[in-house]
Every structure is written in C-alpha cells, then in structure tokens.
Specification:
The complex is a heterodimer.
Chain A (H helix, E strand, L loop, with lengths): L2 E11 L6 E12 L4 E6 L5 H9 L6 E6 L2 E2 L7 E4 L25 H5 L1 H5 L4 H14 L15 H14 L4 E5 L7 H18 L2 E6 L2 H7 L2 E6 L4 E7 L2 H8 L2 H5 L2 H19 L7
Parallel strand pairs in A: 3-8, 3-9, 6-7, 7-8
Antiparallel strand pairs in A: 1-2, 1-4, 4-5, 9-10
Helix pairs in contact in A: 4-5, 7-10
Chain B lengths: L11 H7 L22 H20 L11 H13 L7 H32 L1 H14 L4 H12 L3 H26 L2 H9 L4 H35 L8 H10 L3 H29 L7
The chains are: A alpha/beta, B mainly alpha.
Chain lengths: 280, 290
C-alpha cells in the first residue's frame, strides 16, 4: 500500500529541435503509511516535477506512479496539494498575477471547506469538518476573516486545513514554508509535524532548507540536477525526538544533527559547483 | 567655492517643484528616490480653480469675444434655459435620457456578449484563434472611420448608432475579460483540481471569480469609450441627445450651448466612472491585495 514511484523518467522537448531535457531519470520512491518523505536538492533537480507527477498534473515519459496499487492518472482529492505562498500585496498595475493558492473572494472558513462544497456536501456538515481542521491548525477564531488580510503564516495554515478537509491519503507540499520569515517558518514546521502525527497522513514535502529537511523527514531523498535523480537517501528520526522533548532548537543544535547537516550540505554544494545551482 | 545651487524659499509650490532635483534624505513615511510620491489632491483643487478663474477673468475683461468663449455666467444661464425651455426640439433632460439610453443599451449588449467571448478566448485556444484577429484588427481603428460603414449596413436609424457605440466597447471588455482569465494563478487551479474539482467547477468557481477584477476594469474602460463615441454616433440623423445638441449648436454658432453640453457630458461620464469604482470596491475588495 501507499504511493509508489516505479522507474519514472520525465523527458521534455528542449528549445532546439531534437534536443531533450531529462528532468527526471529512473526515480524510485516508496511512500508508506506514516512516512514523512522530504525531497531536497539544488534548483533544477526536478523536485517540483516529481511532486507534479505524484499529484497527477503531468504524466511520466516512462515508468509509473501508483497510489494503493492504482495508477495515478490526473489529479484527485486523495492526494491533497499544499502550494507555496507568496505574501504581500500584488502589483495592481495592469494584469495581476496572483501567486498564491488560496481564493481571496472566500473567507477562511469558505476556503477550508471549498473541496467539500465542490463534492456537494451539505453546509452544516462541511462547516463542521472544516471547523475541526481549522482548529487543528490554530485558526478556530478566524473563520470569518478575509484571507488576504492574514499574515503569510496564517494563510499557509488555511492552505493546510483546506487540503486536510477532503481527507486525502497523502499531502503533497511544494515548498510550503519558502516565503515565510524564519520565526514563522519554525512555528509552522512544528505545526506540520503535529498535524502529521495527529492525522497519520503520508506526506511528501519539498524544501530548499537542509535544516528543515533533516528536522522533519522520516526519510530524506537528496536529488541532483541534469538529469534529475536521487543520489542519496537517509532514514532520520529527529522529528520523533521533537515529539519527546518539544524543543526544536535543542535538536537542531545537537552534535549529530549538525554532523548530518554538514554531510548533506557538502553533497548539495558539490552539485552547485558542478554546474547545478541557480544559474539556469 | 560658492554654492551655485538655486536657493528656494522653504515650503510652498516652488520648493515642492524644486524637490524634483533635491538630494536630501526623505521625510519619515516617504521612501527615498520614489518618483512622484505625496498627495496631489490640494494641488488638483488649486489647478481646477485656477482654470475656472482664468476662464472667468478673460471673459470678464473682454479679452475674448463671447462668440468664441462665453463667460461662466452665460453658460450657466444657458444651462437653466435649455433645462427648462429646451434646445433643438428637446429639453436637457430629454437629450440626456436619449444619450444615456444609447450608451447603456450598447453597454448591456456589449457586457452580455464581449465578456463571455473574452472568457472563452481565455480558456480555449480555438476560440482565441478565431476571435483574436478580428478584435485586434478593428480595435485601434477610430469609430469615426467605420461610422460610414455602419450607416451603409444598418441605415441612419437607432441601430447604427447603437452598433457604433457597441463596437467601441466590445474590444476593451473582451480583451480585459481574457486578461482576467489569464491572471488566475496556476496554483489556485491546481489546488482546486487536487480538491476533486471537475473542469467545469474550476471554470465556474476559480477562473470566473479570479477574473472578476479585470472584467470590472474592462466594463469601466468600456463605458468610458461609450461616452467618447457618443458624439460620433449622434452626428448623423439624430433628433435628440447630448452629442446631437452640441453639434447642432455648433452649426448655429451657439457657443454657450456647446460648452454647456461638453461640461454635462464630462460630468455624467465622470459620475459613472466613480460609480463603477465604487462597485469595484464592493465586489472585488481583494483587488491588488494578494
């Protein structure tokens, strides 16, 4: 059971005719119940392509993705997506590109229950379900607030509650904390871990931050660009230590945490020096 | 070494204008180097009053003959006269109602057709391929240039007038609706699909709502275009309307009616722009916020 990625390769046509870009090559991942899998890697290593495959937004060129033995063909509510937020007012000159995943014309509660409304659930029923998950992310007092008046961290809490209300088998999180300030980010890391333990969902989580990846993952996959592939896999249990002591700073500054961090950092820096990195 | 910079008295308009060249640090609440910051309301009021006073002064001093520029008092008297006794066969209220009927008739027809066309152009590449060339071709052409054609095709009655105004409004409304559809973020669309939405639900619940700010902007631009096209539409074979009134008055050199008509059209168009902005704030309070 769980989500399997079996020998997946994704090839895009390049800019020049006949040229091919190997975004992902021969990826194998097995996510089972209770797993918190984090993908880490330099820009252009195919992390987001991998998440889009799991979500069903793109199809693999070779190999297959299955959830509970069924081949993933297109998006579905059993795989909830939490996108990154970009906060702050958008430019109101010309066309406004809304770089966020919430729906600003709906209140916090209406956003959280949006999926249930689409599925035709009655209003009292969906109110009750959404309220439960809004309480889980600490937003029980903000039901009727406009989402665009909330801080970035609170907006992301709404995004998490919205994904949970449809009761998905797994959450796919694409750099959900990337745009937040350091303090809010640490608070939300703890919140997501608590939500994960409380609900038992499988989570696939993408991040740029080595510290965040090590702290949260039960399994860390380190990816390399050109072609996008998995180079290292680590089984970790720092999050279990957090559940025991509730002191994230102590864990992140402990000797063994720092040791793994430096090891992973040197792998990623090696990729950057070898021509990966942001210079695309 | 003497200071060669021009010295300006502190405060007042002169120093405000000289600030364009100032190199000092910004005051609290302003950001250094941001072009044109600060409120301009007081200056706008002063500029409007100044123009009015200039108009009053040159007519009161007799510098310009009333045939070319009648005094504000004469224009106001004419306003009262046309409002009560009428001009060119109708009184001011009738002229205004005729013009508003034409502009709003065309506006509703344009809203009912251009907005759906724009949305279809946004969500469907076949529709975009079909409608893009004709709209982009006729959009920059001044309505006066195709007025003769609308008369040949639709006669000199109300139909050709409505169609002329309708065409002027169609392009901005359709193109803004299309831009609105394109402004919806892929993150919002992906989120809806992964919550189990169907394609129709994504269009109804995400894309149409997300396009609302741009659709309303298109309606605001469209109604503005309607007022600017009004006089052209009422040039041929009209018997009432503000544009007709102004044209008719100019043929008989009744300059005070011409100026009065221009001011009335300007005020009405401005009031409807304010109304549309108010509706925007009411319907899409999130515009520019996220």
């Amino acid at each position: 059971m769980g989500l399997q990625v079996d020998g997946v390769t994704v090839v895009y046509p390049g800019r020049k005719p006949g040229e091919e870009v190997h975004a992902l090559e021969n990826i194998n991942i097995d996510i089972s119940d209770g797993d918190f899998v984090v993908a880490l890697g330099a820009s252009g290593c195919g992390k987001t392509t991998l998440l889009n495959l799991m979500a069903g937004f793109i199809a693999p060129s070779a190999g297959r993705v299955t959830l509970d033995q069924e081949v993933v063909e297109g998006p579905g509510k059993e795989r909830g997506v939490v996108n990154h937020v970009v906060t702050g007012p958008g430019a109101d000159r010309g066309v406004v590109f809304q770089k966020h995943a919430l729906l600003p014309w709906l209140t916090v509660l209406e956003n959280a229950e949006f999926g249930l409304k689409l599925q035709g659930m009655s209003k009292p029923e969906r109110n009750e379900t959404a309220s439960k998950y809004l309480a889980l992310v600490g937003l029980e007092d903000f039901h009727h607030h406009a989402v665009y008046q909330l801080s970035g961290g609170m907006q992301q809490r709404v995004g998490i509650a919205r994904a949970l209300t449809s009761n998905p088998a797994m959450l796919l999180m694409d750099e959900p904390l990337g745009a937040l300030d350091a303090l809010t980010r640490e608070n939300l890391q703890e919140l997501i871990l608590d939500v994960w333990r409380e609900t038992g969902k499988m989570i696939f989580f993408i991040t740029h931050s080595v510290e965040e990846a090590l702290f949260m993952a039960t399994r860390l996959v380190v990816m390399s660009p050109r072609p996008g592939r998995i180079t290292h896999t680590y089984d970790l249990d720092f999050q279990q230590r957090f559940f025991d002591c509730r002191d994230a700073r102590a864990i992140k500054s402990s000797a063994d945490f720092i040791e793994v961090r430096e090891k992973v950092l040197s792998i990623i820096h090696g990729d950057e020096l070898a021509g990966g990195g942001d210079h695309v | 070494m003497s200071d060669t910079a021009v010295t300006v008295p502190k405060g007042g308009v002169l120093s405000a204008i000289a600030n364009v060249f100032s190199k000092g640090p910004a005051k609290p609440g302003e950001s250094y180097g941001a072009p044109g910051q600060g409120s301009s309301v007081a200056i706008s009021v002063a500029s409007s009053l100044g123009l009015f006073l200039l108009w009053y002064a040159v007519t009161a001093l007799g510098l310009i003959k009333p045939l070319f520029l009648p005094s504000p008092a004469m224009v106001f008297d004419k306003f009262v006269e046309v409002a009560t006794e009428g001009f060119g066969g109708s009184n001011l209220m009738q002229h205004t109602l005729w013009s508003m009927g034409r502009v709003f008739g065309a506006f509703f027809a344009a809203a009912l057709t251009a907005i759906p066309v724009g949305i279809f152009m946004g969500v469907n590449r076949v529709m975009r391929g079909i409608f893009d060339p004709p709209i982009e071709f006729y959009r920059p052409i001044p309505p006066l240039a195709y007025l003769p054609l609308t008369i040949i095709w639709f006669g000199i009655g109300e139909t050709s007038k409505l169609i002329l105004i309708y065409l002027a409004m169609f392009a901005p409304m359709a193109l803004n609706a299309r831009a609105g559809v394109r402004s919806v973020s892929i993150e919002q669309i992906h989120a809806a699909y992964s919550l189990g939405a169907t394609r129709v639900q994504v269009i109804l619940h995400v894309i149409l709502k997300g396009a609302m700010p741009e659709i309303l902007t298109g309606m605001r631009i469209g109604i503005g275009f309607g007022w600017t096209t009004l006089v052209a539409a009422e040039m041929v074979a009209a018997e009432a309307g503000l544009g007709y009134m102004v044209l008719n008055a100019s043929e008989f050199l009744v300059t005070d009616v011409v100026i009065m008509g221009i001011i009335v059209i300007g005020i009405i168009a401005y009031l409807f722009d304010l109304l549309m902005r108010w509706i925007e704030r009411l319907l899409v309070p999130w515009k520019g916020q996220m």
